[in-house]
């Protein structure tokens, strides 16, 4: 066999390895190596086989692009202090990169004493969660309870679209994030795989609030 024949056999051996590995990153690297090894075989023929060379370059370019994308996705996610606090409080069931994507749909805000999150008789415009600062909940001017940092505010109202039966205001300085409902719907339409995870988070939050009321 000629040197070119050895190359094509080695290329196909690399493809066999590529189809045997489970990690998609290694699969793509072996596919790139197989295409790269195949190109000299086409070039060393008595008449250069340009179409296979062109297709091998196309497959290499596609795989290299996907490899770059995989490395970018696997980079360590660095969270700010506020983001880390929020993640530790309520979103540990999400992968850090999924959590960062969710944050992009929200808006961080600072609150002060008397700042209102829910208005009695009005529908919720957003789902909010505080990382600092308690919320005083009242109905018709009478105290109902207190919501501590880490608890979702407005989830049930967002699901039903009903006017809020209570008013919720901060009792002191606060730091919180809100997801406008339209932003959240758009986000979930783009990332349907997160819908179930977020629904489970909402269910756990509602169960915790119900348990606190029944105690």
Account of the protein in words:
The chain has 215 residues and is an alpha+beta fold. The chain folds into 2 domains: 3-74; 81-214, Jelly Rolls. Helices cover 55% and strands 18% of the residues. The strands form 2 sheets. The chain has a 4-stranded antiparallel beta sheet. A hairpin with a 2-residue loop joins β4 (135-139) and β5 (142-147). The longest helix has 25 residues, at 50-74. It is rod-shaped, with a radius of gyration of 27 Å. The N and C termini lie far apart (82 Å). 21% of the residues are buried.
Itemize the secondary structure elements and their pairings:
Blueprint: H1 3-20, H2 24-43, H3 50-74, H4 81-90, H5 96-104, E1 107-111, E2 116-118, E3 126-132, E4 135-139, E5 142-147, E6 152-153, H6 155-160, E7 167-170, E8 174-180, H7 181-190, H8 195-214
Antiparallel strand pairs: 1-8, 2-7, 3-6, 3-8, 4-5, 4-7
Helix pairs in contact: 1-2, 2-3
Q: Keywords for this structure?
A:
four-stranded antiparallel beta sheet; 18% strand; 8 helices; Jelly Rolls; 215 residues; 2 domains; alpha+beta
Tell me the name of the CATH homologous superfamily of the largest domain: Jelly Rolls
Mean pLDDT: 87
Secondary-structure element sequence? HHHHHEEEEEEHEEHH
User: Unreliable runs, pLDDT <50, ≥5 residues?
Assistant: none
Number of strands: 8
Any idea what the shape is? rod-shaped
Query: What is the CATH level 1 assignment of the largest domain?
Result: Mainly Beta
* Count of domains: 2
CATH architecture of the largest domain: Sandwich
Structural class: alpha+beta
Strand portion: 15-25%
Can you give the helix content as a percent range? 40-55%
């Amino acid at each position: 066999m000629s040197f070119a024949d050895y190359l094509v056999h080695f290329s196909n051996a690399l493809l066999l390895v590529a189809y045997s590995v489970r990690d998609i990153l290694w699969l793509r690297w072996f596919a790139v190596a197989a295409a790269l090894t195949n190109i000299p075989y086409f070039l060393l023929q008595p008449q250069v086989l340009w179409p296979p060379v062109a297709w091998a370059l196309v497959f290499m370019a596609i795989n290299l692009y996907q490899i770059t994308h995989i490395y970018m996705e696997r980079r360590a996610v660095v969270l700010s202090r506020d983001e880390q606090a929020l993640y530790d409080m309520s979103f540990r069931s999400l992968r850090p990169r999924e959590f960062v994507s969710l944050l992009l749909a929200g808006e961080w805000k600072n609150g002060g004493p008397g700042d209102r999150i829910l208005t009695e008789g009005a529908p919720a415009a957003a789902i909010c969660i505080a990382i600092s600062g308690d919320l005083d909940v009242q109905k018709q001017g009478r105290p109902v309870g207190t919501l501590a940092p880490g608890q979702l505010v407005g989830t049930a109202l967002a699901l039903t679209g009903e006017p809020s039966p209570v008013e919720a205001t901060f009792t002191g300085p606060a730091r919180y994030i809100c997801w406008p409902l339209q932003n959240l719907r758009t986000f979930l339409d783009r990332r349907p795989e997160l819908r179930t995870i977020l629904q489970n988070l909402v269910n756990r939050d509602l169960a915790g609030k119900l348990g606190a009321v029944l105690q």
